[in-house]
Amino acid sequence: MTVATYPPEATGAAFALDKMIIARDQTMLAVQRIAKLLQPGITELQAKQLAKEELERMGMQRIWHGSIIRFGRSTLKTFNQPIDPDNVLQPDDIFFIDLGVVWEGHEGDAGDSFVLGDDPRKLACAHAARQLWQEVKEKWLREQLAGPALYHFAEQRAQAMGWQLNLDIKGHRVSDFPHAIYQAGSLGDFAACPDSGLWILEIQIADPAGQFGAFYEDLLVREE
Fold it and tell me: pTM (2 decimals)?
């Protein structure tokens, strides 16, 4: 049996960049809405159920990757590690939400970090993840770097900012659903400048003391 092979930036016949942007915007909106629902005392398992209910209210087509919500020390975990279902959100916690949702046949993937209370180090960590993501995007726009160079830059900037970049998290393809048939590998290993609207840039950083981390991801897209 012959297995079809595709270029790493292949898309399906239904692909449309404007629909990718809609999917991105809807998914990021869902992240923000779900974050507002999470109150101290909730468990990670309960948070995941709340996320499912909110996505259904918003009219999602389907989830294309399992919703990830992590509290406290669990923010150090990577995507493939299971949630801690009994982990409870504390009044002064940091947490992040990572959603992969299909809207109008296209894959949205977005993640952000949030802080309850006013712990300055946790607030700084969440802010740094967003800032670092933006700096890497601007580097991509200015210099049209390939994936490895983008993550090398991210690692250097994270260190300069006082954080540790998790290089096991290196971004991935998205497309009209399902992108998985293209087997494109990670953004951090992609040896060309990533095209607009096809790749998710992921940034996960950790406090050097190893107590907590923060996560931010969004679509790399040139928006005029």
Answer: 0.96
Q: Is residue 6 part of a domain?
A: no
Peptide bond just before 208 cis, omega within 30 deg: no
Residues contacting residue 20 through CB under 8 Å, at least 6 positions apart: 106, 107, 174, 175, 197, 198, 219, 221
Specify burial of residue 208 (Cβ count, 10 A radius: 0-12, 13-18, 19+).
exposed
Q: Three-state SS for 200? A: strand
Segment among 134-138, 170-174, 177-181 with least mean pLDDT:
177-181
Residues in Cβ contact with 135 at an 8 Å cutoff, skipping those fewer than 6 apart: 153, 154, 157
5 within some domain? no
Residue 198 placed within a domain: yes
The mean pLDDT of the chain is 96
Could you say which DSSP state residue 208 is in?
T
Structural domain boundaries enclosing 90: 17-220
Confidence label for 3 from pLDDT (cuts 50, 70 and 90): low
Q: Strands 164-165 and 199-206: what pairing?
A: antiparallel
C-alpha distances (whole Å) from 94 to each of 114, 150, 187, 217 are 6, 27, 27, 16
Calculate mean pLDDT across residues 145-153: 98
Domain count, the chain: 1
Tens digit of each residue's pLDDT (9 = 90 or more) over 53-99: 999 999 999 999 999 999 999 999 999 999 999 999 999 999 999 99
Q: Which of 199, 190, 189 is nearest to 222 (CA)?
A: 199
